[in-house]
Design the sequence.
């Protein structure tokens, strides 16, 4: 009894010293992390009052990308299964939401249900499809899997184009689901507690809450026995199997959870897009999410969030600074590249640069900075 | 019967180009264990280079094709040296993701070079047709078959008979042992990228000739070589040729008969046929028809 108290006392000043395994598996391993997380959540909640409307809208996109990125990170970062098929599951989520929560119009079906129904189902339907694909995906390893999931994107795009009673058909598209939760429209201006909030701010909070819940859920999953099974499968699947980890079940679970996250992200993304066409869910969207995971850092939730901020904000940054960059121009004015081309070019270059120079991504950069200041001024 | 022959020959033409691209993938995979997702971009750049040499420098078509292949081989080698060499020893999916980044960069460069106008490949075939077994087929398809298979045969012969080819195979077999025998393994990596990019350039010229023109959408053609290498096995040149031709024929037949007999599968269904075949094959044989089964040890 007194031993426990003694260890707790010594721990107070030394957060890195753990004497129990359960301490290492805490959701926040140190009090500093917990406090900073609370501060960050508070700051993010206050941001819409300080920022302009288009930035608020962009930040909602960041949350959505973070949700999708966390999903892909569970599959690719934690469980080690590279997937190029994320866009397919996003599309599946978007269309599930649109059918259940959208309006019937011009030949496309829509049931007009409440968000409390369509949001969970937008995750569950892709998760079920993920379950169906997983046994096949679990048979193949490494790059074979990457190509298999690439096929999924193309087949999915074809199905989306053909099922025009759901999707509106190629090039036409349809309106997404309506974000009405228990009769409260999350995508409309409201007056709350005397504050006049525009629709983007309201939707910002909706995305933020969903994002925080899902990020914590993912962190929890990662520290559970399933999360450890994922890591074991990633690091050495044969060894994991020898230790009693069921490979098929673990990979299937990773696929299902990842698809669930993708589905939710897809449903929210479709509302931000405003109108969705089958072409939205193509290979390049998958590459975007792959970039979120790889630029942010494999197998860290906070890394995926950083990656999402980076991937979504990069085009905006390039746009802001394009006047100062001598090479860019609008279309047909003789500059070396247009702004759009520069954005994509930079995107590709950064994927390469991060993977070559800092494989742990933005999270790795952060760890370096943190370690430098931890031992400051004796950092060598 | 005429439809059938035309479909088969058209399919073989497409399939021969797939085989050409697939061999490029396989050569890189065998030496470096990386799937080069940048191949589609190299293909478009090759098509552009050749077309620019014909139309702007006024070179004869054949010469410009050869020069374009050499230029792209250089681009491939430089890419390997800058972006892929530092990735040695890292997980192969990280290296594959690097090639995705390279793909985006090269694709944007290609977009910028090609511009908004459609440019023609300047090929001698155009839309000419010949009659084979009573069916009218494009000369282009025959040219695709002959040129692709010749190029693949030349590469196969190079790998099988030449000293450098032997060194490349040694590298593919075991890098450390190859190093110990005096093979410059790094140079072999570069060479495999060079050969692969050269083949991609040739494929680009073939794909963009005829009616299609040099256009960024032909990148999708190169991605269809991925099901081909899965079907044939990632490390088998023989497999990729056979699988390429098979998938080409399957695509050609689907294009000819599916709109008539199973219209509910939708327009352009032939474009997803390679991926469907791939999925079916993976269910039965996870390492393709001729791929080496990975020996798993603890």
Sequence:
């Amino acid at each position: 009894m007194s031993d426990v108290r003694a260890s707790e006392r010594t721990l107070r000043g030394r957060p890195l010293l753990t004497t129990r395994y359960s301490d290492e598996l805490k959701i926040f391993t140190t009090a500093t992390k917990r406090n900073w997380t609370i501060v960050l959540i508070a700051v993010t909640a206050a941001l819409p009052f300080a920022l302009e409307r288009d930035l608020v809208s962009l930040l909602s996109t960041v949350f959505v990308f973070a949700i999708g990125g966390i999903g892909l990170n569970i599959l690719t970062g934690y469980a080690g299964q590279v997937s190029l098929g994320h866009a397919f599951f996003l599309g599946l989520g978007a269309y599930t939401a649109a059918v259940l929560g959208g309006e019937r119009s011009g030949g496309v079906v829509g049931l007009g249900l409440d968000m409390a129904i369509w949001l969970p189902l937008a995750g569950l339907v892709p998760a079920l499809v993920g379950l169906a694909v997983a046994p096949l995906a679990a048979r193949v390893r490494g790059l074979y899997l990457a190509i298999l999931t690439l096929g999924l994107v193309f087949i999915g795009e074809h199905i989306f184009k053909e099922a025009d009673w759901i999707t509106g058909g190629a090039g036409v598209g349809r309106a997404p689901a309506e974000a009405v939760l228990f009769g409260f429209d999350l995508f409309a201006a409201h007056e709350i507690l005397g504050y006049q909030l525009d629709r983007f701010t309201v939707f910002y909070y909706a995305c933020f809450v969903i994002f925080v819940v899902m990020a914590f859920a993912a962190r929890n999953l990662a520290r559970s026995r399933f999360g450890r099974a994922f890591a074991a499968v990633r690091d050495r699947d044969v060894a994991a199997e020898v230790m009693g980890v069921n490979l098929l079940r673990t990979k299937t679970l990773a696929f299902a959870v990842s698809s669930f996250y993708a589905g939710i992200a897809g449903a929210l993304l479709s509302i931000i897009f405003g109108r969705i066409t089958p072409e939205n869910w193509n290979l390049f969207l998958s590459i975007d999410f792959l970039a979120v995971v790889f630029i942010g850092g494999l197998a860290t939730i906070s890394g995926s969030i950083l990656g999402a901020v980076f991937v979504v904000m990069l085009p905006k940054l390039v746009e802001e600074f394009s006047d100062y960059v001598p090479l860019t121009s609008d279309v047909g004015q003789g500059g070396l590249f247009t702004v759009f081309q520069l954005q994509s070019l930079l995107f590709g270059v950064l994927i390469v640069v991060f993977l070559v120079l800092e494989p742990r991504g933005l999270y790795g950069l952060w760890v370096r900075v943190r370690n430098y200041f931890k031992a400051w001024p004796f950092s060598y | 019967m005429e439809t059938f022959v035309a479909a088969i020959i058209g399919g073989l033409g497409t399939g021969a180009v797939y085989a050409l691209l697939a061999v490029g993938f396989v050569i890189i995979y065998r030496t470096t264990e990386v799937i080069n997702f940048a191949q589609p971009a190299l293909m478009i750049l090759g098509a552009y280079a050749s077309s620019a040499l014909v139309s702007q420098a006024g070179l004869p078509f054949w010469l410009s094709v050869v020069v374009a292949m050499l230029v792209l081989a250089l681009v491939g080698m430089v890419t390997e040296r800058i972006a892929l060499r530092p990735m040695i020893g890292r997980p192969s999916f990280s290296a594959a993701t690097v090639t995705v980044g390279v793909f985006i960069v090269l694709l944007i460069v290609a977009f910028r070079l090609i511009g908004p106008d459609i440019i023609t490949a300047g090929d001698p075939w155009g839309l000419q047709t010949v009659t084979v077994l009573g069916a009218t087929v494009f000369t282009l398809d025959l040219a695709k078959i002959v040129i692709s298979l010749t190029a693949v045969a030349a590469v196969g012969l190079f790998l099988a008979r030449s000293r450098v080819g032997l060194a490349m195979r040694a590298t593919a077999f075991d890098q450390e042992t190859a190093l110990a025998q005096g093979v410059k393994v790094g140079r072999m990596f570069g060479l495999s990228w060079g050969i692969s990019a050269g083949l991609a350039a040739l494929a680009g010229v073939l794909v963009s000739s005829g009616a299609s023109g040099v256009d960024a959408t032909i990148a999708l053609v190169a991605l269809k070589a991925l099901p081909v290498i899965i079907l044939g096995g990632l490390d088998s040149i023989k497999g990729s040729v056979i699988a390429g031709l098979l998938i080409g024929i399957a695509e050609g037949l689907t294009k000819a008969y599916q709109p008539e007999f199973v219209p509910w599968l939708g327009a352009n269904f032939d474009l997803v046929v390679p991926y469907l075949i791939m999925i079916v094959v993976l269910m039965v044989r996870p390492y393709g028809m001729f791929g080496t089964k990975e020996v798993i040890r603890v």
